[in-house]
């Protein structure tokens, strides 16, 4: 139990010092092609008032 508390405390404190890798305050427009060959542009979705969630996956 003590180890779990120490781990939790460490994660909470370290989270205060984490920063994003970029100082950007606005999204940068980009176009990506999905696995079906269809192109998707970020700003097109945002202009249609759609929510955009971007998931990055690393493949080994």
Q: What is the fold's blueprint, element by element?
A:
Blueprint: H1 2-15, E1 31-33, E2 39-41, H2 42-47
Antiparallel strand pairs: 1-2
Question: Would you write up a description of this structure?
Answer:
- This protein has helices spanning 2-15, 42-47; strands at 31-33, 39-41.
- The chain is an alpha+beta fold and 60 residues long.
- The chain has a domain at 21-60.
- The chain has a two-stranded antiparallel sheet with strand order 1-2.
- Strand 1 (31-33) and strand 2 (39-41) form a beta hairpin.
- It starts with a helix and ends in a 13-residue tail after the last helix.
- The mean pLDDT is 80.
Comma- or semicolon-separated keywords:
60 residues, alpha+beta, two-stranded antiparallel ribbon, 2 strands, 10% strand, elongated
Helix-strand pattern: HEEH
Distance between the termini: 35 Å
Tell me the total number of β-strands.
2
Large-scale geometry: elongated
Strand order of the largest sheet: 1-2
Quick summary:
The protein has 60 residues and is of the alpha+beta class. The protein has helices at 2-15, 42-47, and strands spanning 31-33, 39-41.
């Amino acid at each position: 139990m003590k180890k779990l508390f120490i781990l939790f405390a460490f994660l909470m404190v370290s989270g205060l010092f984490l920063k994003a890798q970029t100082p950007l305050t606005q999204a940068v427009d980009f176009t990506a092609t999905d696995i079906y060959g269809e192109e998707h542009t970020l700003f097109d979705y945002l202009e249609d008032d759609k929510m955009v969630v971007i998931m990055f996956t690393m493949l080994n």
